[in-house]
Amino acid sequence: MEYTSTELLACVAAKMLEDKKSVFVGTGLPMIASMLAQRTHAPDLLIIFEAGGIGPQIPVLPISVGESRTFYKAVAASSMHDCMSISQAGYLDYGFLGAAQLDMYGNINTTVIGEHDRPKVRLPGSGGANDVGSLCQRTIIIMRQDKKRFVKKIDFLTTPGYLTGAGAREKAGLPEDTGPFRVITQLGVYGFDEESKKIKLLAIHPDVSIQQIKDNSEFDIIIPKKIDMTKPPTQKEREILREIDPTGMVMRKG
What we know:
CATH topology: Glutaconate Coenzyme A-transferase
Structural class: alpha/beta
Shape: globular
Distance between the termini: 16 Å
């Protein structure tokens, strides 16, 4: 069965979201993965958007986290303040973000490429991502992987991961037992070493080699002896993805 890398990313990410948990969702693939989870194994997944949509049952992919469809059949049409307060109170199980650059400790840049005052590229910025990465119990990051994105040093710290390593988040005043949980790319799935807090490979996708993992990162990735392999999308999952994104706004990429 043929499938795109974007379909694979969405399906792998969706499986990480558990039923009866809460997730703070960013724009794009995080939205699609959350909607897929809700329509498959996690019907009672509580989706939250920074613009104020709490617990919607979204019919079709919204253009952004503030579009009217993010309030469809919602438990509450609230406010950005309330959503951030829920996160600050420790009630959000997952934060779901994208990234332009990522370092070995899961720190994210979505602000600029190059120097801040004279950037080569101006990116969208934080939005609610800093709050999500700082306060949600577990952060899931979904992104493309290559040497320009998996970098030794990010150009700007938009969203904190484990900062400089073990204990650094706590020293900075961030809540204990929070931080990056998983990173999902077109090559594999990553977690973080419990002691060093450095990124480590957990699973590779079908037809991906360990050498490809190494070749597409500026920094050394911890590669344990035992590595799992992800499962490709099923036909049913691909059908649901087409229902979620009928125009192919996101799913046709990759």
